Amino acid sequence: MAKTKVLERKPLTFAEKTFLPQIASGLATTFVNMFKKSITMEYPEVRPVIPDKYRGIPTLVKDPKGRVKCVSCQLCEFVCPPKAIRIKPSEIDPDTNEDRSHIEKEPKDFDINMLRCIYCGLCEEVCPEEAIFLQDNFSLSGYTRESMVYGKEKLLELGGTLPDKHFKWDKKKEAEENNPINH
Questions:
Q1: CATH: 3.30.70.3270, 3.40.50.2300, 2.40.10.120, 3.40.50.1970. Which one for 58-165?
Q2: pTM (2 decimals)?
Q3: Does residue 173 have a pLDDT over 60?
């Protein structure tokens, strides 16, 4: 049979029975905070200052010429821990898209389920084309679960156009034109 230990409870003092010390402490806290400057922010009219390295929602971006930078390598889909990213690649016809003739695929569908996304930033880190970026937007809302699955058009709208530091596609095209051996 297990031994049980009985603890003696000390009797309450008169002050503890009347709760006067606790009431006085609470009133003191109230009066101190009444005369301090308010720290309430009138959101959404006043937005908080976002730190530089803040990781918000992932978005797709275009290059300065308006081309989608994603080439459907699907690395972001494979590295995503909660499996929030879904990509359906499609082939690019090199005859109709002269300036991207060295690229084989582009995303037909690119969906990110924002309800599953944990904003870890792995998709941004792994992207070789710098096509996916985490923006400083943190306020998402929707009425249904389906509205929180952002498609390619919505992601491009949120991401916009970012300057291309490398001009990767243009350099490859120029290299192909200047080197007749590869043709």
A1: 3.30.70.3270
A2: 0.68
A3: no
